[in-house]
Design brief:
- By secondary structure, the protein is mainly beta.
- 0% of the residues lie in helices and 43% in strands.
- The chain contains no helices and eleven strands.
- The strands form three sheets. Strands 5-6-11-10-7 form a five-stranded antiparallel sheet, with no helix packed on it. Strands 2-1-8-9 form a four-stranded antiparallel sheet, with no helix packed on it. Strands 3-4 form a two-stranded antiparallel sheet.
Protein backbone atom coordinates (compact mmCIF):
# COMPACT_ATOMS: atom_id res chain seq x y z
CA UNK A 1 0.00 0.00 0.00
CA UNK A 2 1.23 3.47 -0.86
CA UNK A 3 -0.31 6.55 0.75
CA UNK A 4 -0.03 10.17 -0.44
CA UNK A 5 -1.38 13.12 1.55
CA UNK A 6 -0.27 16.69 1.09
CA UNK A 7 2.42 15.65 -1.38
CA UNK A 8 4.10 13.20 1.04
CA UNK A 9 4.26 9.59 -0.14
CA UNK A 10 4.91 6.39 1.80
CA UNK A 11 7.42 3.77 0.78
CA UNK A 12 6.80 0.22 -0.48
CA UNK A 13 5.76 -2.64 1.81
CA UNK A 14 8.18 -5.30 3.01
CA UNK A 15 6.75 -8.65 1.90
CA UNK A 16 8.00 -12.20 1.74
CA UNK A 17 7.18 -14.67 -1.03
CA UNK A 18 4.66 -12.14 -2.38
CA UNK A 19 2.08 -13.26 0.15
CA UNK A 20 2.86 -12.30 3.74
CA UNK A 21 4.01 -8.96 5.11
CA UNK A 22 5.91 -8.86 8.38
CA UNK A 23 7.91 -6.49 10.51
CA UNK A 24 7.97 -2.84 9.46
CA UNK A 25 5.42 -3.32 6.70
CA UNK A 26 4.47 0.30 6.04
CA UNK A 27 6.78 3.31 5.83
CA UNK A 28 5.38 6.85 5.77
CA UNK A 29 6.78 10.35 5.46
CA UNK A 30 4.73 13.11 7.10
CA UNK A 31 1.94 10.67 7.98
CA UNK A 32 1.26 8.55 11.02
CA UNK A 33 -0.59 5.25 10.56
CA UNK A 34 -1.81 3.65 13.79
CA UNK A 35 -4.22 1.02 12.46
CA UNK A 36 -5.16 -0.69 9.21
CA UNK A 37 -8.32 -2.78 9.37
CA UNK A 38 -8.49 -5.39 8.05
CA UNK A 39 -4.80 -6.12 7.49
CA UNK A 40 -5.45 -8.37 4.47
CA UNK A 41 -7.84 -8.69 1.56
CA UNK A 42 -8.73 -10.62 -1.57
CA UNK A 43 -6.99 -10.23 -4.94
CA UNK A 44 -10.47 -9.71 -6.43
CA UNK A 45 -10.80 -6.53 -4.33
CA UNK A 46 -13.98 -5.28 -2.72
CA UNK A 47 -12.72 -5.36 0.87
CA UNK A 48 -13.79 -2.29 2.89
CA UNK A 49 -10.69 -0.81 4.56
CA UNK A 50 -10.37 1.73 7.38
CA UNK A 51 -7.05 3.42 8.09
CA UNK A 52 -6.55 5.46 11.26
CA UNK A 53 -3.64 7.71 12.09
CA UNK A 54 -2.80 11.38 11.63
CA UNK A 55 -1.92 13.76 8.83
CA UNK A 56 -4.52 12.79 6.23
CA UNK A 57 -5.94 15.48 3.95
CA UNK A 58 -9.71 15.62 4.53
CA UNK A 59 -12.36 15.08 1.88
CA UNK A 60 -12.96 12.70 -0.99
CA UNK A 61 -9.85 12.09 -3.09
CA UNK A 62 -7.59 14.45 -1.10
CA UNK A 63 -5.52 11.56 0.27
CA UNK A 64 -4.53 8.77 -2.12
CA UNK A 65 -4.12 5.11 -1.22
CA UNK A 66 -2.66 2.70 -3.77
CA UNK A 67 -2.95 -1.04 -3.45
CA UNK A 68 -0.16 -2.27 -5.70
CA UNK A 69 -0.57 -0.02 -8.74
CA UNK A 70 -4.32 0.55 -8.32
CA UNK A 71 -5.78 3.68 -6.71
CA UNK A 72 -8.64 3.24 -4.26
CA UNK A 73 -11.56 5.66 -4.03
CA UNK A 74 -10.89 7.28 -0.64
CA UNK A 75 -12.96 9.35 1.77
CA UNK A 76 -11.23 10.98 4.74
CA UNK A 77 -13.83 12.56 7.03
CA UNK A 78 -11.06 13.73 9.36
CA UNK A 79 -7.27 14.05 9.55
CA UNK A 80 -7.26 10.83 11.60
CA UNK A 81 -9.41 8.39 9.57
CA UNK A 82 -9.84 7.32 5.95
CA UNK A 83 -12.13 4.68 4.47
CA UNK A 84 -12.01 2.99 1.09
CA UNK A 85 -12.73 -0.23 -0.79
CA UNK A 86 -9.63 -2.13 -1.87
CA UNK A 87 -9.40 -2.34 -5.68
CA UNK A 88 -8.85 -5.61 -7.56
CA UNK A 89 -5.26 -6.67 -8.24
CA UNK A 90 -4.01 -8.34 -11.42
CA UNK A 91 -1.83 -10.76 -9.47
CA UNK A 92 -0.36 -11.31 -6.04
CA UNK A 93 3.14 -9.90 -5.94
CA UNK A 94 5.32 -7.75 -3.66
CA UNK A 95 3.64 -4.52 -4.77
CA UNK A 96 0.11 -5.76 -4.02
CA UNK A 97 0.84 -6.95 -0.50
CA UNK A 98 -1.07 -5.03 2.16
Amino acid sequence: MTVTAGGQASGPPTCHHGRHCTGDVYRYTGLKITELSPDHGRIAGGTPVTVTGDGFATGAGETEFKFGKSLAAVECPSMTECTMVAPAQKSLDRSSCW
